[in-house]
Every structure is written in structure tokens, then in C-alpha cells.
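User: Can you predict the 3D structure for this chain?
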Amino acid sequence: MGDLCLVINLGSSSLKAALVDSTGAFVWHEGRSLSKEDVLETVLDSWLMPAIAPHQQRLERIGHRVVHGGERFTAPTLITAEVERRLTELIPLAPLHNPPALKGLAWARLRTPECPQWACFDTAFHSSLPAAASTYAIPQALTAKGFRRFGFHGINHQHVAETVASQWQQQGRDPKNLRLISAHLGAGASLAAIKGGICIDTTMGFTPLEGLVMATRSGSVDPGLLLALMRQGFDADTLDNILQKESGLKGLSGLSGDMRDLRTAAASGHREAIQALDVFRHRLIQSLGAMAASLRGVDVLALTGGIGEHDRHLQEELQQALHWWGDIEIVVVPADEEGMIARLCRRQTG
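Assistant: Here is the predicted structure, written as C-alpha cells:
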């Protein structure tokens, strides 16, 4: 009998995959970027298939990251033809991310038809949001159509929550009392307010555009600004491109959406890079305050993601900016979506 879970984590421009054994250890774990010219199925055949071929007899299940599960999918779900059909219907909610995941599903079904496949959803961890946190102040008729706050990065936020809870338990403290803010800071960025392991608030909403300043995404802007741009002739596709790909750190600096590039430029006195960092930090601290208010206090702030884990300047800036919070721990938790997906799948199947 097999003992390996193959995890396929497809983003809009990246591919990560892992083979995870029954103890949670990685047998193999790699990632690569995807260009617009890449044909996904060809990349999977030429890059992933040779990597897993020596281990194929040990494959027990396959787990996929799917960004958006809508209101229906709030737990890891065994893929069936009906589930796949319903996931296709959700593409409009995540047009950049759900299509690659569905292509990955189809590829794996053809290459390893004997392996059951599971979908794990970035929105699922946030399904515990109370109505007050998930509801927009818009007409009820629109809310009834599914226009609500979902939240994203949930797989990694759950990994962070479980990691910090385990650390607390090892220290003899009750994780049921833990008030945690998980800060997933990378090209995409979001915060989650987690109380006793349950997510009660988050910064992303109906789409991954809401909330923090990101690499090329704007984060929250005044809806009136968008209306003003529409009245000036900007159509939906143009606005989508501006908000998704030309804003954030890249738009602010005019240089790059990469925090490392901006740190270098700011150190040389580049005015727009300095301003980009200031705006990023201001929105982050502002939103941390909002999550703290939802939790009624904070015990631990956990930093994760590429920026959260590696930007020492930001870690020091947050230590200084949040000293007035008093006795809180600021910890770094390496992101591990692939490991979390494997754990989630195993919990469903024993």
C-alpha cells in the first residue's frame, strides 16, 4: 500500500509540488515559475512526471490547492465529476488561480487514474468568519447572490495557527486561549485574526484584492475612486489590469513589486521606493490594529511568507511600531502550504 501524498500547488505564475510521507516528511519538494509561454500540461509532463516516477508505486493520494471554494466547499473535498463541474462554475470568482488548479486536476487524473484526488481550498479556513466579519454593507439582494467576504491564504494561515498552537502547548499554555494574528506577507499579503484556532477576521474579502498593499495588487481603495475612473472611460478589464498587475509596491515605486529591490533602492535615497515602503508599512500597521481589535488583544504575531520570513528590516520596524501593545511575542513561521495540504488530506482519509 502506498504511503505518499503528492501535493500540486499551482498559482497563476508558479508551480510547487511535493511528495510527503505518512510522517509529514518531504521525500521531494520543489517549485518553479511559469511564464506566459509555458503550456502547463507540457511542464507537468517534463518536470513533475520524471520527479514522481520513481515513487509512483508509493502514491496513495493527490492533494491540490484550489484558491476559491465559494460558499459550498469549506473542507478538503474528494474530487468527483460533480465536484469538478462545480469548481468550474467558480472560475469567475478566481479567474487567475482556479483554472490552473483545474488543469492540474485533469492532468493528474490522466497520469495517475488510480489515485484519489483531493481539493484543499484557500477560502476554507475562513469559513468560520462570523456574519459581521463576512458581510458587506450592500443591499441584501446582492449579499444573497454570494457577494460577501471569503478571505484567502487560508491553507497557510491554518498552518501558522497549528504551528503556534503546538508551540504554546509545548510551553504548557492552553492554545484555546491563544489570540494570534497570522501575517502572510509575500507577493500577495493578508492578515488573519485567529482565536483559539478559529479564524474570526481577515483582511482579504470577496477577492484577493482587498486589504494590504501587495507586490502589484492595490489592496483596499475607495470604491468611489473606481467609480470616478469608470466615469473617465476606464472599462472593467483595464481597471482589473491596473489593480491586479500595475499597482501595489510596483505602482507606488515605479520600479518593482519586489521588496528586496525596493529596500536596495530606498537605501540609495530613491524617493518613490521610500514612499512605497512607507505606504506598505502604514497599511500593515493599520490593519494589524484592526485584527487586534477583533481579537480584543494579541498574544502572538506570526510573520510568514517571503517578506514576513526574510525581511529583517520589517521585523525590526514592527517591533518598534508595536511596542505599545505590551507583552506580545513576534515569531517567524516558515510558510508550508504543501505540508498543510498533505495533512489536511490525511485527516479526511485516516
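Residues 4-121 form a domain with the Nucleotidyltransferase; domain 5 fold (CATH 3.30.420.40). The two ends are 14 Å apart (CA to CA).
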